[in-house]
Amino acid sequence: MPSVTEIRSKAGSEPVTMLTAYDAPTARLVEEAGMDIILVGDSMGNAALGYESTLPVTVDEVASHTGAVARAAEEALVVADMPFLSFGVETAESVHNCGRMLKEAGADAVKLESGPHTVDLTERLVQLGIPVMAHLGLTPQRVNELGGYTRQGTTEEDAAEILDLARAHEDAGAFSLVLEHVPANLAAHITDELDIPTIGIGAGPDCDGQVLVFHDAVGLSENPPPFATAFGNAREELQHALDGYVGAVESGTFPAEEHSHVEEDLDELY
Ligand code: KIV
Ligand code: NA
Predict the structure, then answer these.
(1) What is the pLDDT of residues 170-229, one digit of tens each?
(2) Does residue 180 have an active-site annotation?
(3) Least distant ligand from the CA of 143
(4) In whole angstroms, what is the distance from residue 86 CA to residue 189 CA?
(5) Domain boundaries, the chain
(6) Which residue among the candidates 61, 145, 180, 263 is catalytic per the annotation?
(7) Closest by Cα among 47, 2, 57 to 209
(8) Residue 31 banded pLDDT, cuts 50, 70, 90
(9) Ligand 1 — pocket residues by CB below 6 A?
(10) Domain 4-232 is in which class?
(11) How far apart are CA 187 and CA 193, in angstroms?
């Protein structure tokens, strides 16, 4: 299993591969593909739980899904994504919630949507033995404050602030940094400046690694973000299977003889 130390040492050398998963069979598939990191993202809110955003996702939901993923994953590093307001309010509560992901759910690390309010918290968590993945640029938990899922770091001032926060989180002990929906040249510059690996999503080709949401990557999402690419058409495959099932039941071709068992002894009775 790649440890956070091994992930950290990949900066500037081998690309880091990361994808989300929210359940055991998906985690097994993702792992079979050789993924370094499985993120149990709070994107489960949209992708799996039917919410309109990630905001309603609870600590219990992330812990439950992280448990499913961690029980299935043998090789990949499992990172639990801390949901909206579960961290950064009170330190004791933040430590308790993050600690649950390791103690109870079996995660190897947590990810925090980062900002000025997570620098000290990151240091505290790392001191306590809870590895932290930082996340800057577009932080979807702030959608109401940002006014949409818009590209971040587009002005000189905003770009400088993201770079400063990236350095601060590296200094605080984060083992890696997700950069979401920022200009490719800013992501490349931050990647150059940091010793820890950057993992991009909508952040261009020059990060140390890439992350996508499972449903976007396999072609299951109805509304993938503009920066995602589907590497397959799982939606069509599944639809084909489901149409086949409904059609077979309706036409009476399933179950066939080979799917049925006749008990000879009952033949006289019925
Ligand atoms: O929740 C999530 O899936 C994420 C990734 C897109 C980085 O935060
Ligand atoms: Na997330």
Answers:
(1) 999 999 999 999 999 999 999 999 999 999 999 999 999 999 999 999 999 988 999 999
(2) yes
(3) 2
(4) 31
(5) 4-232
(6) 180
(7) 2
(8) very high
(9) 20, 39, 41-43, 81, 178, 180, 201, 211, 213
(10) alpha beta
(11) 10
